[in-house]
Amino acid sequence: MEVVIVPDAKAGGELIAEAMAALVRRKPDALLGVATGSTPLPIYEALAAKVAAGAVDASRARICQLDEYVGLPVGHPESYRSVVLREVVEPLGLSEASFMGPDGSAEDVQAACEAYDKALAEAGGVDLQLLGIGTDGHIGFNEPCSSLASRTRIKTLTEQTRVDNARFFDGDIEQVPHHVITQGIGTILEARHLVLLATGEGKADAVAATVEGPVASVVPASALQLHPHATVVVDEAAASKLKLADYFRHTYANKPSWQGL
């Protein structure tokens, strides 16, 4: 696993955006898996700036969702489809036709999960999947003790995750859905490159368990250790519990443009 320690969230966003831009230059129709929440916003802002400046042509790129709430009405501003369209697809100048996501409003949710896994495979697979990490080590909405071989499925959110996400619903936890569709860990591991961004001291324990702890379902993100090309980008605060932090700093300090990413 590659671990890159950056000064702050902005630097992490720029680093990852350049990796995504480089991928799109090599493969114009790349399928980019995106995550929601506040952590990846610097990535999307930096990538949109590159597109606006003509540094990369993303017009043929495709976007896919990591997860989606179950039961929110179509068009709800906090559905993850709406968030991705607003924060990624529109700023990059893409059409909605470039976007793939699970149907959280489907009557048969299990069928919708299976259909999404099939659609990802038929699209040629995800080239680069962005990930965040929860304070409990979850990725996507694969909560602790999720199967490391799990596929896209419906999950019940833990109380802590609903508390964490209430800030997107005017601070009202009662508005946060109880269920989500999420790519399973097995589905996530099929992407060609996994890139996890974590910032802030609150993520330090989860990052340390992910990078330096054993692979265990109690820390779902630790499954990234099994992937042949996984990159973890952390700021100094999120890296504060890493025993090998100095090693990681030394390893990447002299790589032009962070070539390891």
UniProtKB/TrEMBL annotation:
Regulation: Allosterically activated by N-acetylglucosamine 6-phosphate (GlcNAc6P).
Marked site (Part of the allosteric site) residue numbers: 146, 153, 155-156
Keyword Hydrolase: yes
Enzyme class: hydrolase
UniProt cross-references to SUPFAM superfamilies, sorted A to Z: NagB/RpiA/CoA transferase-like
Catalytic activity: alpha-D-glucosamine 6-phosphate + H2O = beta-D-fructose 6-phosphate + NH4(+)
Record-given protein name: Glucosamine-6-phosphate deaminase
Organism for this UniProt entry: Streptomyces alboniger
